[in-house]
Amino acid sequence: MKTPMTYKDAGVDIDASESLVEYIRPLARSTFRKEVLTDIGGFGSLLMIDRARFPDPLLVASTDGVGTKLRIAFELNRHETVGIDLVAMSVNDVLVLGAEPLFFLDYFATGKLKPETAKRVLRGIVEGCRIAGCSLVGGETAEMPSFYKDDEYDLAGFCVGIVNRDSVVDGRSIRPGDRILGVASSGLHSNGYSLVRKIFSRERGYSLDQPVKGCSVPLGEELLTPTRIYVKPVLGLLERVSIKGLVHITGGGLIGNIPRVLPPDSKAVLHLDQWPVPQVFRWIEEEGAVPLQEMLRTFNYGIGMVAIVAEEDSRKAMDYLEQAGEKVLLIGEISQRKQEEPAVVW
């Protein structure tokens, strides 16, 4: 006689997964906007479009992950903030087109589902959605024995935003003389961690419990600072000022991302002495002997979001963002670009 086998014998605990869904259901409901028509747990989610607010709507979609920042969370057993990172990376991306994040879905994959760890991650996702004002309408929890290590997981997020056709921010109106405003980051956000981990590896004598030089917190705590979500202050600014271009500074840094919104005949002139670079970047630069250009194309270097506005709107924009609780500085201007010149100079 063959021994009867179940899915749990193969390493997949359906009961634990279903229990997790029941745990997240009320948390997800707390993020629902009025557009959401269905509850968590169905095959899909139904949402309506508010045609009073969006008479000519366009949808904007984005997907992203958290990357090797998760390794820091694993090592420290700190899982509360990576969910915020997951949401931030996608909602900030749809925001740069002038879109309001509408809904978000997550994908959580692990070798063995540990409900308490998953709950800590999901609470961060819910918090990120609350900060961004978007609905967490569903997700997927995948338990994949032997595919991932039992104590590790991976995350992916998916966001859809909405914007009226005549309100899209696409950079087409950017002209020489426009001002570049830099909105401060909260730290590394979620990019460059493979390099950071190499620089501060155990093999080189570093520990995540070691304080960052010039900072009052240990290295691990600094590296787990969640990505800043800029949605509400920038949406508020869009109602008050004509923003010509928005840039979310992610992988590629300042010199890799700003050109994505510039017309071919324009270049961004950055004044690096115009903003205080957080100490963690200085430490990376020093300990890894990382050249400045490599820093600028790998990290946000202290600037998480860039807004390009006409000169006459720059003061008004800065004042509003400061009132909204953001640190914002005038970090450069747009100039005419010759064919052989780079798109970003400093």
Folded structure, characterized:
The chain is of the alpha+beta class. The chain folds into two domains: about 10-165, PurM-like, N-terminal domain (60s Ribosomal Protein L30, Chain: A, 2-Layer Sandwich); about 180-345, PurM-like C-terminal domain (Phosphoribosyl-aminoimidazole Synthetase, Chain A, domain 2, Alpha-Beta Complex). Helices cover about 30% and strands about 20% of the residues. The chain is built from eleven helices and ten strands. β2 (about 100-110), α4 (about 115-130) and β3 form a beta-alpha-beta unit. The longest helix has 18 residues, at about 115-130.
Strand order of the largest sheet: 6-8-5-9-7-10
**How many DSSP H or I helices?**
11
Assigned CATH architecture of the largest domain: Alpha-Beta Complex
CATH topology of the largest domain: Phosphoribosyl-aminoimidazole Synthetase, Chain A, domain 2
Order of helices and strands: HEHHEHEEEHHHEHEHHEHEE
Helix content: 25-40%
Q: How many strand units?
A: 10
- Distance linking N and C termini: 76 Å
Radius of gyration: 22 Å
Query: How many domains would you count in the coordinates?
Result: 2
Strand content: 15-25%
Mean pLDDT: 95
